[in-house]
Structure formats: C-alpha cells, structure tokens
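Hello forum,

I keep getting stuck at the same step: I have a sequence, I want structure tokens, and every attempt I make locally crashes halfway through. Rather than fight my setup again tonight, could one of you with a working pipeline run this one for me? It's a single chain of 96 residues.
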Amino acid sequence: MTKLAYLLLIGLAVPTAAPAQHHRDQRQAFEARREGRILPVREIERRVVPSMGGAQYIGFDFDSGAAVYTLKFLRDGRVIWVDVDGRTGNVLGRTR
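Reply #2:
Ran it on my machine without issues. Output:
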C-alpha cells in the first residue's frame, strides 16, 4: 500500500469517530443533568453565548469526569473554546 493510499484511509476513518464522541458527550451530559449533578447545557449556553460578542456558536463537548462543558465558537476564522464548570456555570477559561 502506498503512503498516499494509507493516508487517505486514515483520513476516511477519522470523521466517523467525531460523531460517536459527540453522541457520547451528549449522553453523559444528559445523564449528569438528569441526576442533578450539573446544569443543563441550555442554561450554560444562555449564560455564555451572549458574552461572546457576535462569535458564531458551533456546539459543545462535555467532560463527564471533570463536569466541564467546552463551548466552541468561531470568530474571524479562529476557533475559541470556553470551558465552563457544569456544576456552577462559572467560566473556567477561554482561548483568545
């Protein structure tokens, strides 16, 4: 197998992993919310999105171990990540 063919096969395999991970993130967030351990993502979004000065909201990931939402935004071709404590709704950090 040539290097090009190998790289193409790897490239085709990667996109299938992202939707599965996103689904797991959503399921874990749903379970934690249902059990009252975290705030709902809609509440987190309501608090954070307006503070992003017109950046386009892309979506979120959820780290169930740390109970941290990572909201993703796009502004001027750059991705901005905002980490939010899922228990309190406090912003923990943000890329520029």
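DSSP finds two helices and four strands in the chain. If your local run keeps crashing, start a new thread with the error log.
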